[in-house]
Amino acid sequence: MEKLIIIKYAELNTKKSNINYFIKILKDNIKKSLDGIDANIHFDKGRMFIESSENNYNIILNKIKNIFGIHEIIIGYKLLDRDLEVIKSTVVDLIKDENISTFKVITKRSDKNYPFDSMEISRKVGGAVLKAYSNSKVDVHNPEKEIYLEVRLDAVYIYFNREKGIGGYPVGSLGKGILMLSGGIDSPVAGYLAMKRGIKLEALYFESPPHTSDQAKNKVLELAKKLSSYNGEMKVHIINFTKIQEEIYKNIPHEYLITIMRRMMYRISMKVAKRNKCLAIINGESVGQVASQTLTSMQVINEVINMPVIRPVACLDKLEIIDIAKKIDTYETSILPFEDCCTIFVPEHPVINPLSDKCEEYEKLIDYEELINDAVINHNVVKISNKNKYEDLL
Ligand code: ATP
Ligand code: MG
Fold first, then answer.
1. pLDDT value, residue 343
2. What residues flank ligand 1, with Cβ below 6 Å?
């Protein structure tokens, strides 16, 4: 009998013809996350199996719990001898140290030629447990212990506890996107939700030194590091936005500061995205949250680019976003009080319904093409993974 980890796929089961494509990416992602651990991974259309030595199993569980595409993670046992008497004695032996009171046996039989059907197997194995442990009782509705048996062609799999995975599609299976990552609460949550749909992320952060501090940048890198535990590793593009922002501040009527600033951010994001083969921009905009997030503002800001913008938190309430931020452990970092480049140049009365014509007219007052190209060409890239500290990479 071998101990092993059994992984059940999440929504992948709906991908009939190209399921192998998704499973292979999931396998690669798992393999990368287990870098340095001696583990053997194999799969079929319904399950993935990881075999390793006994003392690695908890480490492996810990490493794969943040991998999208996994519906359930199970520690189980593979029994090559499928004889019913062997199954009975193995189950009885596996639970010998647990003083179980109530239990239930649940059997799935994919080998339809096996001499007993599922009901008979459950009954007979249940009978063996009752006989071995006289204090135990069968309870089919609310058992203390569930005993799962899967009778397959190659072996019988036995397991007890099923742990939920985080679902979604394997990261990278649906291409790459660029996440506009600020130090706020919303954009890390937006990134998490995009990764959940299988999008691999690169992040992009606009800084405005000396108006913004190194602490603000480190906060964003810390958030990127947290997100990298789902993404494998994370490239963070750091764009110096100071000149552009100062030019806007000097030359443009203040009610349009934010609208024009965000149009510049979108233009830069699209250029960086295209240079890095990212197919979409992802950001943390949420309808109605601030003046730049009314539908009119979003339309006027969006019109300067021609690539999809995905806004995963667009229709969530702030409290719903905060709930997710707490769950993925970004909240405490996001609420640290360092100024972001947007907050510093916020005018008193930003326009709520900006006009495209006005934006175009005002933008003629600055030589933005050159400034944008400069910012794109001369930006820094930091590679972050959950393994190394970002301080080592700066
Ligand atoms: P967040 O909580 O994510 O900061 P917010 O509610 O503060 O969002 P805005 O400041 O209007 O909203 O920003 C909207 C989105 O634009 C952010 O969610 C983020 O995706 C992007 N963004 C804003 N500032 C920056 C920045 N300095 N660098 C990169 N992206 C940014
Ligand atoms: Mg913000």
1. 67
2. 180-182, 184-187, 204-206, 283-285, 289-290, 292, 340-342
* 330 Cα to the center of ligand 2, angstroms: 14
Considering the chain, tell me which residue range(s) the CATH 3.30.2130.30 domain(s) occupy: 2-165
CATH number of the 2-165 domain: 3.30.2130.30
Question: Whose Cα sits closest to atom 6 in ligand 1?
Answer: 186
**Facing residues of 383 across strands?**
235
Of 10, 324, 21, 32, nearest in space to 174 by CA: 21
Could you report the per-residue pLDDT of 229-259, keeping only the tens digit for each? Answer: 999 989 999 999 999 999 999 999 999 999 9
Q: Is the pLDDT of residue 201 over 70?
A: yes
The answer to whether the pTM exceeds 0.85 is yes
Joined tokens for residue 380: 């820094």
Residue located via tokens 């949250």: 289
Given this structure, which CATH class describes domain 176-392?
A: alpha beta
Portions of the chain given CATH number 3.40.50.620: 176-392
Surrounding ion ligand 2 within 5 Å at CB are: 182, 184
- State pLDDT tens for residues 108-166: 999 999 999 999 999 999 999 999 999 999 999 999 999 999 999 999 999 998 999 99
pLDDT at 13 over 70: no
CA pair distance 87, 70, nearest whole angstrom:
28
Q: How far is the CA of 271 from the centre of ligand 1 (A)?
A: 18
Mutate to test the pocket of ligand 1, among 185, 186, 238, 346 (most ligand atoms within 8 A of CB): 186
